[in-house]
Amino acid sequence: MTTILFENPIFLEHKVPEGHPERPDRLKALNLALEHERFSPLSRLEAPQGNEDLVLLAHPEQHLRTVMSAIPEEGINAVEADTYASPASLQAALTGIGGAVAAVDAVFSGKADNVFVASRPPGHHAEKNKAMGFCFFNNIAIAARHAQQRHGVERVAIVDWDVHHGNGTQDIFWDDPSVLFCSTHQMPLYPGSGAKTETGAGNIVNAPLSPDTGSEHFREAFKSRVLTALDDFRPDFILISAGFDAHHRDPLAQINLTAEDFDWATGRLLDVAGKTANNRIVSLLEGGYDLQGLAESAATHIYRLMRG
Ligand SMILES: [Zn+2]
After folding, report:
1. Model-level pTM?
2. Alpha-carbon 192 to chain mean position
3. What is the distance in A from the centroid of ligand 1 to the CA of 145?
4. Were both Cys, which of 37, 99, 147, 262 would link to 6 (CB 3.0–4.6 Å)?
5. CATH code of the domain in which 138 resides
């Protein structure tokens, strides 16, 4: 497999208040893990900054204006309850989008089989009209729409294994059967949505996990809900909302996965992509707030993408 990793130093310039879990150190920890020699074949490229028009693939113009008006000239500003912006946050968020879109272009041009985008801020909580949960714009939704509009992709599957429900992605694709959204997440937990009964146009598949469960429960739910839905849907392209906060060390949730579980789940999605999507997978970093748990899990995920 040819794997590209998109990164950019601007992602470290999105500042948050002291003690906030979604902090620049997350990417520094991942970078350290990627120094291992097994990552030497990985093609590491600078994510380009996306333009503001890309935001409009998933959000109304009013949302873009609201976010832009919340960016401070200096210091740190609260955008909503737990989402903060610093002067470089808009540029960081637009570069996250630019990286996601460049990742889609790379797999459809044949430059790569799969791509991981190591960006922050994350995106899956951003609804059509609302920044929330550390997220400004929904990177993965924008990537899915770009794949459809630029590359004529008919069926896009988004698999979200972040421990929090991807309410924003679900909101954006609620009535769009061309996009399958599958999510495993702890329930109850922030943001509160993600019940099995939330099915949209039949394209939403939620697999809630009870607190204090681990590998066995996760793998059973992934097989019976997510993989079954993917088999039926036969995606042309797979996007992963890759949060690593279901790791047992994570401070924000109570699911007890290990890096091995992310290796396993990545392998299963590679199998599906090999069958129906010409191997095409783009994976975007979402959450993961224990530095060691995040770095080990994300590095394991990337190494699995490289091996196919
Ligand atoms: Zn999360």
Report:
1. 0.99
2. 18
3. 22
4. 99
5. 3.40.800.20
